[in-house]
Amino acid sequence: MVRRSTRREAHQRKPNLREAILAAAEELFSTNGFNAVSVRDIAQAAGANPGSVTYHFKTKDGLLLEIYRRHCGPMNQRRAELLGAARRVRDLQDRLEAIVRAYVLPAFSSGHDLAGGGARFTRLRAVMSAEGNEVVRKIIAQTFDDISHAFIDAIHESLPHIPRTEIVWRSHFLLGALYYSLVTPERVSRLARGEADGSDSANAIEQLVRSTVASLQAPALEERTVAPRQSATKRTHQKAPPERR
């Protein structure tokens, strides 16, 4: 008598099915966004049935969370290791550069650890951030907020005269530059008229680090606005020249 295989055994005989579902979901999310993609779309792209998706990941939310974990877990761990080393640098200028490099470097190198590379996942992150979905916002916060706070605090320790809120803004700009550098490197090559290669990761990292350090060290916005105001007040209170009679 031939025993019918159970659902669990059928899934166990397809060890690559889970990876196929993850790859299909990542590609679809990065192209169409989270809201527009259904579990059925993902299953069809993976060559599976919708039940396989729910079997492995329960829900579409769980699938997205797993995509973030598999990419960002190793990246955040590497960032934390490099940040720990950077904070031990004595010279403040060198320390600031090391902190920024600790943030940038893993975003480029971690993409080679998984199928699909860093560009596809970075594109997914950019699309997810722009979509404004509450589930996505929670996943992003759960994945990145702790490590982001650690970097902002470390930068603030190196630049205590810059308000932390300004460091938050400037770190936010770094994230945007990082997204764009990873997703559209060909634009650099085109605008440089062939004199620069946007896909040169080593050069991209150095350019990002140097420009970000300069941005972080710029005078605080309050300093730049208060100074002209003070000068205007000083001129107002200066004694007026006597009238001619």
Question: What structural class do you assign from the helix and strand content?
Answer: mainly alpha
Topology, number of strands: 0
- End-to-end separation: 124 Å
Provide mean pLDDT, rounded. 84
**Which regions are unreliable across 5 or more consecutive residues at pLDDT < 50?**
1-13, 239-245
- What percentage of amino acids are in beta strands? under 5%
Gross morphology: globular
Q: Tell me the major beta sheet.
A: none
Summed up, the helix count is 12
Rg, nearest Å? 25 Å
The percentage helix is: over 70%
Written as H for each helix and E for each strand, in order along the chain, the element string is HHHHHHHHHHHH
Structural features, described:
The protein is mainly α and 245 residues long. Helix content is 75%, strand content 0%. The protein contains 12 helices and no strands. It is globular, with a radius of gyration of 25 Å. The N terminus and C terminus are likely disordered.
List the helices and strands and how they pair.
Layout: H1 7-12, H2 17-32, H3 39-46, H4 50-57, H5 60-86, H6 92-109, H7 117-131, H8 134-158, H9 164-183, H10 185-191, H11 201-217, H12 221-237
Properties at a glance:
mainly alpha; 75% helix; 12 helices; 0% strand; disordered C terminus; 245 residues
Concise overview:
The protein has 245 residues and is mainly alpha-helical.
